[in-house]
């Protein structure tokens, strides 16, 4: 007879590993559903399909706090949110249902303005002013870095305004793609200039041959 | 598309860049997002709970364990041993379940006290075990599982049972077992030894 200690080490108290992992996953899913239902996490996240690929969306109780392009690894997005806001971050795709629907409508040309609530907590005070001015640029129009700086109260701060736009935590929905350089040069874009051009063409602000 | 920098971020960056520093420095990585913590530990917590309370109570205990963990998570020190921490919570939830069908939430202090086998009265312990036996109505068939040994482990006094489960299912070192049970490391070592001795008697007999 095998020694008791050896039997214990060999898993005498456990059911087979594959069975347990399937049941552990079910239990974890039930946990996520409960956390979502009862709103127990500080940040809920989920993925959103888009013409650019899979976006990561994260929301607090206030609203959408972050939208990340596919190049940003999910782990890094979540690590930054954990460090800056709260580590109580749980996957809860249904909490992002409204963001998903509005983005779908926008990308198919059926929506011009977003109604989903936003949480601007990741923006600095200056970035908040710049991005508020940006949100006021109508669909189909464009503006300039200088105008955004002026609207934010520092007319000479176009470079700082450019930085604020470049670090927009909620691109597309806060339309930093509508801000160009004076003279019509596209300027920069955190998600890549191809996407900026694509979005401006979608909105009819830019003709494809430009 | 980097989010705006704040002082806190600068700190976090400095921390992650200092991963090569020796472990005894006070610098530590920030807590992982809770979802990653759950994904990392769910299998071992599940396995521990199935062994501790049986498959039919494991799901409730699992939910209670991670709900409590989520609640306490932001107050946790970033350099905590997350695995030992969550297994300690699971162990306490398992004790709650062992103590009968009344699934009332116990203050941590009370759980710690009950975890100490010497303060638990005999009749109460037996009543708890009887309730537990009814609730679990037979473990599921398993290739590795030894039902006789499982029954024997569950017949041990609470502290010895806890020590055996935390050691052989939770795979925790004596120091963490001591913390989970709320006793000294020597006492944990002793409980484990006594538990194993009793199991040898029972199973071989």
What would you note in describing this structure?
The complex is a heterodimer of chains A (210) and B (205). Chain A is α/β, with parallel strands linked by helices and 210 residues long. Chain A is built from eight helices and six strands, in the order H-H-E-E-E-H-E-H-H-E-H-H-E-H. Chain A folds into two domains: 86 residues, 2-Layer Sandwich (Double Stranded RNA Binding Domain); 78 residues, Winged helix-like DNA-binding domain superfamily/Winged helix DNA-binding domain (Arc Repressor Mutant, subunit A). Helices cover 41% and strands 13% of the residues of chain A. A four-stranded mixed sheet of chain A has the order 3-2-1-4, sandwiched between helices. Chain A has a two-stranded parallel ribbon with strand order 5-6. In chain A, a hairpin with a 2-residue loop joins strand 1 and strand 2. Helix content of chain B is 66%, strand content 0%. Chain B has one domain. Chain B has 205 residues and is mostly helical. Chains A and B meet through helix 1, helix 2, helix 3 and strand 4 of A and helix 1, helix 2, helix 3, helix 7 and helix 8 of B.
Please summarize what this structure is.
The complex is a heterodimer of chains A (210) and B (205). Chain A contains 8 helices and 6 strands; from the N terminus they run H-H-E-E-E-H-E-H-H-E-H-H-E-H.
Give me the number of helical elements of chain B: 10
Rounded mean pLDDT of chain A is 93
Overall geometric form of chain B: globular
CATH architecture of the largest domain in chain A: 2-Layer Sandwich
Task: Specify which chain pair forms the largest interface.
Answer: A-B, 60 and 56 residues
């Amino acid at each position: 007879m095998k020694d008791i200690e050896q039997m214990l080490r060999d898993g005498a108290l456990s059911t087979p590993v594959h069975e347990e992992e399937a049941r552990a996953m079910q239990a974890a899913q039930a946990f996520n559903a409960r956390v979502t239902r009862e709103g127990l996490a500080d940040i809920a996240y989920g993925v959103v399909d888009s013409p650019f690929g899979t976006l990561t969306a994260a929301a607090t109780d206030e609203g959408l706090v972050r939208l990340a392009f596919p190049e940003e690894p999910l782990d890094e997005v979540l690590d930054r949110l954990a460090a800056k806001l709260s580590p109580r971050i749980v996957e809860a795709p249904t909490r992002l249902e409204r963001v998903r629907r509005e983005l779908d409508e926008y990308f198919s040309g059926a929506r011009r303005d977003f109604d989903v609530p936003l949480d601007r907590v990741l923006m600095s005070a200056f970035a908040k002013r710049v991005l508020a001015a940006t949100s006021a640029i109508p669909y189909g129009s464009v503006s300039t870095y200088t105008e955004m700086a002026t609207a934010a109260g520092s007319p000479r701060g176009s470079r700082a305004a450019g930085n604020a736009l470049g670090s927009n935590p909620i691109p597309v929905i806060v339309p930093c793609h509508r801000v160009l350089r004076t003279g019509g040069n596209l300027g920069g874009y955190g998600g890549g200039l191809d996407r900026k051009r694509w979005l401006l063409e979608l909105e009819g602000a830019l003709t494809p041959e430009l | 598309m980097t989010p705006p920098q704040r002082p806190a971020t600068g700190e976090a960056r400095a921390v992650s860049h200092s991963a090569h520093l020796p472990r005894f420095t006070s610098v530590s990585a920030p807590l992982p997002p809770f979802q990653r913590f759950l994904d990392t530990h769910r299998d071992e917590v599940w396995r521990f709970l199935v062994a501790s309370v049986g498959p039919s109570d494991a799901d409730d205990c699992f939910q209670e364990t991670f709900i409590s963990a989520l609640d306490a998570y932001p107050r946790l020190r970033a350099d905590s041993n997350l695995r030992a921490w969550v297994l300690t919570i699971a162990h306490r939830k398992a004790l709650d379940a062992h103590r009968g069908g009344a699934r009332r939430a116990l203050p941590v202090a009370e759980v710690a006290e009950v975890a100490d086998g010497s303060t638990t009265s005999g009749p109460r312990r037996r009543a708890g075990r009887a309730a537990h036996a009814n609730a679990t109505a037979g473990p599921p068939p398993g290739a590795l599982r030894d039902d006789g040994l499982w029954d024997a482990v569950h017949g041990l006094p609470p502290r010895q049972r806890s020590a055996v489960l935390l050691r052989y299912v939770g795979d925790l070192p004596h120091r963490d077992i001591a913390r989970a049970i709320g006793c000294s490391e020597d006492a944990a070592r002793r409980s484990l030894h006594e538990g194993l001795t009793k199991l040898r008697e029972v199973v071989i007999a």
